[in-house]
Amino acid sequence: MPGQWFADYVRAAPHPGKGRVIRALLRLWDGRRLPSVYGPLITVRARDATNRFALLGTLAEDYRDVHDQVMAMAPGECLVDIGANLGLFTLIASRHLGPEGRVIAFEPNQATFADLAGNIAANGCTNVVTLLAGVSDTTARVAFDPGPAGHSGVAHISQSGSSAIMVLGGRQVADLILNIAGNRRITIKIDVEGHENQVIDALMPLLGEAQVAKLVVEVDAANLAQHGTTREMLFARLAEKGLRPSVNETQRSHYNEVFVRA
User: pLDDT confidence of 186, banded at 50, 70, 90?
Assistant: First the structure.
């Protein structure tokens, strides 16, 4: 069974042909579990770009941003992972936050959710609550585009989508999070391919709570525009609840913004 040496090899210095070796190993072990460079065991889906990013750390900047914010949390706190995909940050948070911590993972795509649940079980995570659902401004069944077979990370809510998912919204989702989190400090990570503003609408009853310490939100101007919103609209809604951007990369069209309580 492949082990930690795979992650060590990925981290090691480059050499001619290393990329081809890694791709061949992923194809060989497709459907089995390997340790990610970030630590947790992950089921290999060799043809899925998001899976490779999580295993190999390929999108170092985007992934490091979120990883660092998760690792800055204190043991015993609560992470809400909205758009969990295969669960990389859910798994990292589960280990880091410890048995007294909580992780709430939302993933609406049934096939991806199956990998999320399998990865949680493989890593022995007992402090995670998973929901086969998305988050939006109302509770409903909505059209969903699962994206290309080779990139699960770009799946998104779309009126022209070929499938359907369940989304939770309004007071319902806010109460659910508070009931699971209890009195723990909460960090919320949102990565939903442009639907971020609608997620924030759903969370507004929760965001005024002092225990919500931080939001880590993917900001992508093109994706937001597809859902009829803008970066400025998103920032304004969070400012209403006393949450201010701490990164504010005005020159970048795609990055992870970290909102902290003013």
Answer: very high
Taking the CB of residue 22, how many other CB atoms lie within 10 A of it? 16
pLDDT in tens, 107-159: 999 999 999 999 999 999 999 999 999 999 999 999 999 988 899 999 999 98
Contact 224, 186 (CB under 8 A): no
Distances (CA, A) of 183 to 97, 101, 192: 15, 11, 26
For the chain, domain boundaries: 59-261
Fold designation for 59-261: Rossmann fold (3.40.50)
Mean pLDDT of 48-73: 90
> Mind giving me the DSSP string for 37-56?
TTSSEEE--TT-HHHHHHHH
Please, which residues have CB within 8 angstroms of residue 152's CB and are 6 or more apart in sequence?
Answer: 45, 48, 50, 51, 85, 86, 109, 111, 112, 146
Q: How many CB atoms sit inside 10 A of residue 159's CB?
A: 8
pLDDT of residue 19: 93
pLDDT of 43 > 70? The answer is: yes
The torsion angle over the Cα atoms of residues 253, 105, 207 and 193, rounded to 10 degrees, is: 20
Are 170 and 135 in contact, with CB atoms under 8 Å apart?
Answer: no
Classified as helix, coil or strand, 114 is: helix
Question: Reduced to 3 states, what is the DSSP secondary structure of residue 190?
Answer: strand
CA atoms of 107 and 135, how far apart (whole Å):
9
